[in-house]
Amino acid sequence: QVQLVESGGGLVQAGGSLRLSCVASGGTSSRFGMNWFRQAPGKRREFVASINSDGGSTLVADSVKGRFTISRDSANADNTVYLQLSGLKPEDTAVYYCYATGLWGRGTQFTVSS
Fold first, then answer.
1. What is the pLDDT confidence band of residue 26, given thresholds at 50, 70 and 90?
2. Do 66 and 49 touch, CB atoms closer than 8 A?
3. In this model, does residue 73 exceed pLDDT 90?
4. Which helix (H) or strand (E) holds 81?
5. What confidence tens digit (pLDDT) does each residue in 11-25 have?
6. Would you say the C-alpha torsion 88, 3, 60, 62 has a positive or negative sign?
7. What residues pair up with 38 in beta bridges, in sequence order?
8. Burial letters for 70-83: b for 16+ Cβ neighbours within 10 Å, e otherwise?
9. Which residues does residue 103 pair with via DSSP β-bridges, in sequence order?
């Protein structure tokens, strides 16, 4: 059974940067596409970014385009995905979830202070 574990949350000032990580372990030795979603307080979970299995194709939501970058280490065979966030705004405050192979991680929370 694949498990997804996110990390990298915390408190950051507006305009700052942060990098989130998601590690998928167990269940398979194959690489697969991975995604980031986020859910702000009182709002629905929304798509943030996705990357395919070899890292050659990415998609980023318009709301964060130019500020967030999704990547993965193509040199390794494991399934670890990163979300580099910059130019953070208070409205980016949310729990960020990793999603892959039909499974969700537990999320990592960060807060952007103004």
1. confident
2. no
3. no
4. strand 79-85
5. 999 999 999 999 998
6. negative
7. 46, 96
8. bebeeeeeebbbbb
9. 100
Closest CA to 33 of 114, 104, 99: 99
Residue carrying structure tokens 């970058």: 69
Q: Is the pLDDT of residue 7 over 70?
A: yes
The CA-based angle 113-38-44, given to 5 degrees, is 105
Residue 99, token pair as written in the block: 């999603």
Nearby residues of 92 by Cβ (< 8 Å), 6 or more positions away: 38, 64, 85, 110, 112
Beta pairing partners, 113: 13
Contacts of 2 (CB under 8 A, 6+ apart): 24, 25, 26, 27, 28, 100, 101, 103
98, two tokens: 């990793």
Distance set, CA 3 to CA 24, 53, 101, 104, 112 (Å): 5, 17, 10, 8, 27
